[in-house]
Amino acid sequence: MAQAFPESFLWGGATAANQYEGAWNVDGKGASIPDHMRGGDVNTPRQIDAEFDPDALYPSWEATDFYHHYEEDIALFAEMGWNVFRMSINWTRIYPTGMEDEPNEAGLAFYDKVFDCCRAHGIEPLVTISHYELPYALVEKYDGWLSRELVDIFFKYGKTVLDRYHGKVTYFLTFNEINIGLANMGCTLSTGLIKGFTGTMAEIDRTATERFQAVHHQFVASSKLIKYAHENYPEVKMGNMIAFLPTYPLTCNPADVLANQATMRQMDWYCSDVQVRGHYPYYAKRLWAENGIELDIQPGDEELLAEGTVDFYTFSYYQTNTVSVDPNAEQMKGNMTMGGKNPYLEASDWGWQIDPTGLRIFLNEIADRYDNIPLMVVENGLGAFDEVVVEDGVERIHDPYRIDYLRKHVRDMGEAVADGVNLIGYTWWGPIDVVSAGTGEMRKRYGFIYVDKHDDGTGDLHRARKDSFFYYQKVIKSHGTDLD
Ligand code: BGP
Q1: One of 21, 62, 133, 177 is an active-site residue; which one?
Q2: CA 159 to centroid of ligand 1, rounded, Å
Q3: Which of 5, 301, 382, 469 sits a CA distance of 20 to 30 A from 215?
């Protein structure tokens, strides 16, 4: 039998409004960045259109239509035994351009219904305030988070969310995968540094100063909101969210080990060191100098960072990579992957190297670094091709690959809990099929619940339980002990 998780452990799934809700222009909603993005695939980066092309298909527009299926979907989540549902609020439902003085009541009312429905099923909502859905109007006017104006614009939005929902929601995350904004691939969905840009995600090339400045503004905005939450709603818990993309040195050559340390600091630790400890880490000055980064840190920023630290740490975990100083070391090919191949690991069809043991290792590393702060794995999952078969008149999706991925990651999380890590929750990414963020595809499916929706926009959106649905149900029921 596998290790047992505590009775209070939060089990559920994670989604993002822009990849799931659809209804992109319904009830007063404005356009956000993903609404301007076409679909791609593992070899074709997504295209961003500054102006909509009437002949193009924009996958976020309908997505898998949570907006009109939320009651049915939440009932299915409850059937799996969930007690937590991570979801995000679509900023443009609340402030269509980000710049209105008053929020859009129809948008606010929608989330009231969703939270009430969750509560009626005994499910705790875990809400990401900003998950890759910056109002497009803020791109056009400000070049996204490059502008300091965004701090107050975000604060107004976040304050509206807290004031309205604090009695219904206990756990909030400020920014999804905040560290992704440090890299060029994050300039689209994460920080929105794409003013006037039409082209593919792969072509975006902003300076390191611009990228780190945009993330600095997000740090300040996040802290300002956390400070407000702590002062006004002491029962609310505010968390960060890191795309944890850990790496190993490819060899024990000290040069590889040093290069790996630098990669981990920049990619994985830099943001959480600020958000957990309340100040930039000691190694930041040299990191900035070596990358030619000149940050504009205004008076008062450092105080805010210190005052608005997080109550819990959350992260996504899909894969690990390797780092080597050898220029000929083999690199992984796939969408959004960064880093070297690991000969001991297998990869998904999208080139993401699967590493359940790494989850145990890095849960311990994070716990060590941050004095055993409460942790949640708020994204983990396998994007795969699924096939629907009809057996005795019933649609079945046999997905042993997904079950295997889940089994191994839960087993290693259980070991981390037994190691003493203060892990309080786990939300599988895309527990119902949603649009992929990286490729905009539907066929890269993560769900325990299948949705009849395809890359050409066809499909009647009906839902069907995959084999993994029943497996996760059993895992939750047994508190993680029955993994057979
Ligand atoms: C994370 C994002 C999610 C989600 C997930 C899977 O980076 O927070 O929004 O999409 O990755 O990635 P993808 O959809 O590209 O397979």
Answers
A1: 177
A2: 26
A3: 382
Residue 173 sits in which domain range?
Answer: 10-477
- CA neighbor of 226 nearest in space, from 129, 124, 89, 125: 129
Burial class for 152, CB neighbours closer than 10 Å (0-12, 13-18, 19+): exposed
Distance from C-alpha of 428 to C-alpha of 221, rounded to nearest angstrom: 27
Task: Given the residues 379, 391, 415, 441, select the one marked as catalytic.
Answer: 379
**Which residue among 242, 379, 434, 441 has the greatest number of ligand 1 atoms within 8 angstroms of its CB, and so is best to mutate?**
379
Token pair of 31 as six digits: 């356009």
- Report how far ligand 1's centroid is from the alpha carbon of 140 (Å): 25
Note the pTM of the prediction, 2 decimals.
Answer: 0.98
Residue 397: name the closest of 458, 452, 477, 351 by CA. 452
Residue 336's pLDDT is: 67
Q: What is the pLDDT of residues 6-63, one digit of tens each?
A: 999 999 999 999 999 999 999 999 999 999 999 999 889 999 999 999 999 999 999 9
Is 177 catalytic? The answer is yes
In a domain, 4, yes or no: no
Domains contained in the chain, number: 1
- 252 CA → ligand 1 middle, Å: 32
Residue 81: inside a domain: yes
